[in-house]
Design a protein that fits this description.
The complex is a heterodimer of chains A (227) and B (224).
Chain A (H helix, E strand, L loop, with lengths): L3 H17 L12 H12 L2 H14 L14 H17 L4 H41 L5 H33 L13 H15 L4 H20 L1
Helix pairs in contact in A: 1-2, 1-4, 1-6, 2-3, 2-4, 3-4, 3-5, 3-7, 4-5, 4-6, 5-6
Chain B lengths: L1 H13 L3 H11 L10 H13 L12 H36 L6 H27 L10 H27 L6 H19 L4 H19 L7
Helix pairs in contact in B: 1-2, 1-3, 3-4, 3-5, 4-5, 4-6
The chains are: A mainly alpha (227), B mainly alpha (224).
Chain lengths: 227, 224
């Protein structure tokens, strides 16, 4: 088993890597909470925990999209950070249920901090673009390549810098709370699925989608009762 | 900046003098924003226009900046509607539904549902637009676009209802208190989101409530 410090660094590097997929590069959805969270769980040695938290976060953020210049929660960083904390807490005797909820809460905090950092990174990108333009005035394309590399590097470093201290601080603080060590299971989907449903309902385009949601719920209840 | 970076191979092919290179770089360092999947149409059309430029630097059709501006906004609207607003939630909910069965390959479900059409569209955009130019985007005006968006959104709405039911009813028999909690969280979340409270804050409150119930009940009520 990896030591805590080794695991913290590895997860922070993962946070940096998946953060690039959000808007900076690729955008093949490995930054989505379900994917990033499960990856973090695999890296940390508990894929089931990563899957559970990733799925819960995916539901909460189901309707969030990084459109245009609108601010968005940094779901990739949040997911990796929360799963990392949850796995570390469970290694230190915190009950699975408490670890799941605490991991989720840290995910939201990390995502909110990441959202603020994205605003700062956009201002940095404006500066980098201005520098690229000044070298372009001389017909030199190398400034553009350099600016893109700096922008990607800044994104990676900011995600790393958010994730690592939050996981470390969360681990240090929460393992000291005795109540979290007492047994308790967590029906997380019961608390997050309705949030996702609400997000879909609020963003729906008309009664048809709301009726379909109701039909899905009814079908699900029939399945649950029958099986 | 990213658009200019992607256009650098075209710059190499054009073999321009210093002032030509300067003009090329400045054209493509202008502000540009569109949907990332459908940006391939703009890239294809722009690359084709740049390579067709006469020695004076003028393309046969609209100027390159006009071409980019003319395509960026409509493609942003189309792409955001289809990929961000319809396909992405569908992919996410597909993954969550599989995850609720405990399958570790659930993330693959999300990636496949989104990326198969996404990568196909990116490649198609680049190839079609580099041959047919801006007219290649007319394929989005056909009926399939509306059906795809409507269908994906409808399926997503159905799936999220199904997920809520599964969350309430599993693993054991349906508990009345589970229905009450789910209903309350749903209604309060709708109210909060209509008051423009971000989903992050709503989710955090829901998670905090779940933790509080768990700590108080120690798993006795089955609510946590």
């Amino acid at each position: 088993m990896q030591s805590d410090v080794h695991l913290l660094f590895t997860l922070a590097l993962l946070a940096g890597a998946v953060a690039l997929d959000t808007t900076s590069a690729f955008q093949v959805m490995i930054s989505q909470p379900l994917v990033a969270g499960t990856l973090a769980g695999v890296v940390a040695g508990d894929p089931g925990l990563g899957l559970a938290i990733g799925a819960a976060l995916q539901l909460v953020w189901i309707a969030v999209v990084p459109v245009g210049g609108a601010p968005f929660p940094d779901a990739a960083v949040g997911s990796v950070t929360g799963v990392g904390l949850a796995v570390l807490l469970s290694r230190h005797g915190v009950s699975e249920g408490a670890a799941l909820f605490c991991g989720m809460l840290l995910s939201f905090g990390a995502a909110a901090i990441g959202q603020r950092c994205v605003s700062g990174l956009r201002r940095l990108n404006e500066t980098l673009a201005a520098r690229a333009l000044s070298t372009a005035e001389k017909g030199d394309a190398r400034g553009v390549s350099a600016a893109v590399r700096w922008a990607l590097g800044a994104r990676f470093v900011s995600a790393f810098a958010i994730s690592l201290p939050l996981m470390a601080a969360g681990l240090a603080a929460l393992t000291r709370i005795p109540a979290l060590h007492l047994p308790g299971s967590a029906a997380i989907p019961l608390w997050t699925a309705p949030v996702g449903a609400a997000a879909i309902a609020v963003s729906s385009r008309g009664p048809r989608e709301r009726w379909l949601m109701g039909a899905g719920f009814a079908a699900g209840m029939v399945l649950v009762v029958a099986l | 900046m990213g658009f200019c970076f992607v256009m650098l191979p075209i710059l190499k092919r054009k073999k321009l003098d210093s002032s030509g290179r300067r003009d090329f770089l400045k054209r493509h360092l202008d502000f540009f924003n569109t949907n990332p999947i459908l940006a391939s149409y703009v890239l294809g059309a722009t690359a084709s226009a740049e390579l067709a430029c006469d020695p004076g630097g003028e393309p046969p059709g609209p100027s390159v900046p006009d071409l980019k501006r003319g395509l960026a906004a409509p493609l942003a609207m189309l792409g955001d509607t289809l990929f961000w607003g319809a396909l992405r939630p569908l992919a996410g909910l597909t993954g969550v539904l599989v995850a609720m069965e405990g399958r570790l390959w659930a993330p693959l479900g999300l990636l496949v549902v989104y990326n198969v059409p996404g990568i196909y569209t990116r490649i198609r955009g680049l190839t079609a637009a580099s041959v047919r130019g801006p007219s290649s985007v007319r394929e989005f005006s056909r009926p399939w676009f509306g059906w795809a968006v409507s269908g994906a959104r409808g399926v997503s709405a159905f799936m999220v209802g199904l997920i809520v039911a599964l969350a309430v009813g599993r693993p054991g028999p349906v508990e009345p208190w589970g229905l009450v909690v789910a209903g309350l969280v749903f209604l309060l979340s709708i109210r909060a989101m209509r008051l423009r409270i971000p989903a992050t804050a709503v989710g955090a409150l829901a998670a905090a409530a779940g933790l509080a119930v768990m700590l108080i009940s120690r798993g006795g009520t089955g609510l946590a």
